[in-house]
Amino acid sequence: MSAGRRALRGRALLLALAAASCGPYANVAQKLDVTARVAGDTWIANGGPDEVRILIVGKPSAEGTAPFSFSSVYEPISAGTSVSTLQGTWVEVGTAGAATLDVEHSYSYPDESTVPILQRNGTTRSDDRFPIQVTVARSAGRLAVSGDARVAGTYVALTEALGHLGTAAPSDAACAFHVANLALLRSQGRIIGFGGAGILQYQQAETYIGTVAGTVEISMSGFTSNTTTLQYAGFEDIGGVVVDGPMKTDANSSGDGHMYGRMTFAFSPIAADGTAGTPITGWIDYGGDATPLGPNDPTNAIQISYGNPVGGHYIVAIDPAGVGGTAQVGPQDPPSPSVSQCLALP
Amino acid sequence: MIAGLALALALASAAAPPVDGAPALTATSPAETSLAQTPAAETPPDRTSPVATSPAAAADADAAAPEPEPEPEQTVGSHLGWRHAIGLGPHSTTFFSKEGSQYTFHSGSVGYLVSRGARGAFAQLFLLWPLQARQDGHIYATANYYRRRSGGDLLFGPEWRWTYRGAEAEAGPGVHGTLIYLPGKAGYRDFSALPLGAGIEGSLRWETRASRLSRAVTVGTYASAAYDFYDPMRAEDLAHGFTFRAGVILGLGERR
Questions:
Q1: Confidence (pTM)
Q2: In this complex, which of A22, A30, A31 lies closest to B233 when CB atoms are compared?
């Protein structure tokens, strides 16, 4: 091996050690993915300004227990900024609505856009258990949760809410992006190290499962100039919203680069009476490629600076081509319309 | 136990015949040689003894006297020059995070120890093979979770040498660092740590009769302890920690 290559490998190793070690110490023998599949209902609520809350509760067992997953997603800008997620067991005994959420895993994907890139923690997970006491009240298509501000809200069934989405207007395409992005943000909020220097862990590809179905594989190649790939396959992290395809980011060690890759989405609305609505499908391109609706324009790709999406556009199109709505969504633009407006959340 | 093993090795080596025709060890320091020979050569006769009043009787007495005990061989020289050794032994590091966890890693280690001068400097570099990890009371066999287990330990600083019970002793304070690098197996998260701090080292060396590269072959034991307080990669999370290591050494001592 030449001296130059040895030096390069040495720098790469030092960078890997340095970068992979940023943030708090990892837990010893920490499993990367501990997600339990939840086969049940997905509920969604307006959590306040810029916040959407998602609650997935499985079918209860004879003892009244069910797996659950809860996320609080902040989208003051279209790219989204932070996600916190709880996973555990929902215990509801009796008919009075008293329920205990036994939290087994809590995730944090904080907004670190102003933190130096090598000092970012990215997504972290704590496996410390704790309970949350809530009171739930069910009515037609709604689930009112009270008793703990962290999860409280008036939730509606997501599959019913999807019925509010249109398909023809540009605003419909923007809504499609924001709804699909909820699933993507939730997945990134469970990938340990995502958004921080710890992402170098994924020089060895790892697979995370979707809460409802499918998988996402994260892999990374290169050190000083690297490519991060999120490959979604039938990924359904919130019931009724499925995403597929690659999302790629090329960046240097300073976090400067661009995104590319085209993902597809499929929404499956279900009416309150259980009737399946018309599926809504389409795609999101991260690399400025509007084909067949427009030219491939790499300069319109999502630009990454200092690890943050700062320029370019997500190009969104609803099928069929030429009929469905299209939109260009800027990553730093406030969602317009917001998710709550798109889904008519109370 | 390790020190005892080292001592047994040293004694066994000292009892063995010279290797490769090497001469038996003698003091190489002129001062020590002189001190060793002075008592036998310059002890005056006891003039008050009645047996010694006659020259003939004195001669008989001299003839009847038992052979004087041979002087013990000196195994320690001037403490000058280089000392090189390979060390082998256990290594343990434990540290506390500001998030409230205690991490402990027990490793096998093999290393290179070098020092120079009676008042000089030392450096000790060890490669680690982490075998067991602990966190907050839970115990993990690292082989089950990590695809590669590696690490290093470095301690360097000033040192002093002196003679201690026939051995050459060395001790000194220094700057210390331990690296633990454990890339995870599929499905597990990587772990790494680089606690830095200050420590002290000590070692005992016995020269054997063997020589290599014109130097005395030495056996001995080493130990060190360190207090770690800064992890440049996780400056926000390391509270403090301790590192201990000990083992046996085989090396090259004074030039012959």
A1: 0.80
A2: A22
